[in-house]
Specification:
The complex is a heterodimer of chains A (141) and B (144). Chain A contains six helices and no strands. By secondary structure, chain A is mainly α. Chain B is globular and about 45 Å long.
């Protein structure tokens, strides 16, 4: 639907603006998995405050927007096994690859980083094949 | 000052994820589902985000240092490596299975329901396990 596309473009613009502020003000790359992962494995202990402040904004502003304008329907699966398997794969994978959709995708592609472009190709391909196999091949999901 | 800038940047990121609909797993899985009812929204989000970010990289290249001090990130590494590919494939599988990636998980904690918290717990466990998995990978098949 074109409305979704326009909202996507506007929302994307805000995401890019967030990345621009983080880069130009703090000299940091806006990568969600790296910001979280550094707190989990202790590698980001030296700048933990900055990481926590960023994540507080990421969680807090949608909370305020949801209170004002309502929640976004997320259509999330209720299958706990899928949720756990998906979470584990996303957690392990993004840390081994050193980035996710925001770090490799938004911040990497925008500086024409080969690593960012290659990572994005592989996670989109793997995600697409997973959906193709489970939804259309096996008929589950 | 760094904390305030980080909070603002995180807030813009969260607002963008909320507004763009990227916390909706149906839109993300719809983008990945090329054989089904394909949803191109994610491409608009990516495009919309990459334009201001590319401009920011241009500005950064002309400046000595970030506003709040410190230094800009080093140029991207040219080396691709096995871990980049293996990690991205694992990430993509999880992303396809559920339709969530790390940013939208955090952004939808307040309104996404208990499933988001289950996913978050598993994701944090996966992140904690990642250094060990990486070491096992390196000892089984040396990276380079």
């Amino acid at each position: 639907m074109p409305t979704d596309w326009i909202m996507g473009l506007l929302g994307g613009g805000l995401i890019g603006l967030g990345g621009a502020v983080f880069l130009l003000a703090n000299g940091r790359i806006m990568g969600a998995s790296g910001l979280i992962g550094g707190l989990v494995d202790g590698s980001g202990r030296s700048n933990a405050g900055e990481r926590i402040a960023f994540l507080a904004g990421t969680a807090g502003v949608p909370l305020i927007l949801a209170l004002l304008f309502g929640a976004v329907e997320n259509n999330l699966t209720q299958n706990v096994i899928l949720l756990i398997a998906g979470g584990l794969l996303v957690g392990v994978g993004t840390r081994i690859a050193n980035g996710c959709t925001s770090g490799h995708g938004v911040c990497g592609i925008s500086r024409l980083s080969l690593r960012g472009i290659v990572a994005t190709c592989f996670y989109i391909l793997a995600g697409g094949l997973t959906i193709a196999l489970l939804r259309h091949g096996l008929g589950v999901m | 000052m760094r904390m305030i800038f980080a909070l603002i940047a995180g807030g813009l990121f969260g607002a963008g994820l909320y507004l763009s609909g990227m916390t909706d797993t149906a839109k993300v899985q719809g983008w990945l589902d090329v054989f089904g009812n394909w949803d191109p929204t994610l491409a608009f989000v990516m495009g919309g985000a990459i334009v201001p970010m590319a401009m920011a990289w241009q500005v950064a290249a002309r400046r000595q240092a970030p506003v709040a001090g410190g230094s800009f990130p080093a140029p991207p590494e040219a080396r691709l490596g096995r871990n980049l590919v293996v990690g991205s494939v694992l990430f993509g599988m999880g992303w396809g299975l559920v339709g969530l990636c790390p940013g939208p998980v955090v952004a939808s904690l307040s309104y996404g329901g208990p499933g988001v918290w289950v996913f978050l717990a598993a994701m944090l466990a996966g992140m904690a396990a990642a250094p060990f998995v990486r070491r096992r990978l390196d000892s089984a098949v040396p990276a380079e």
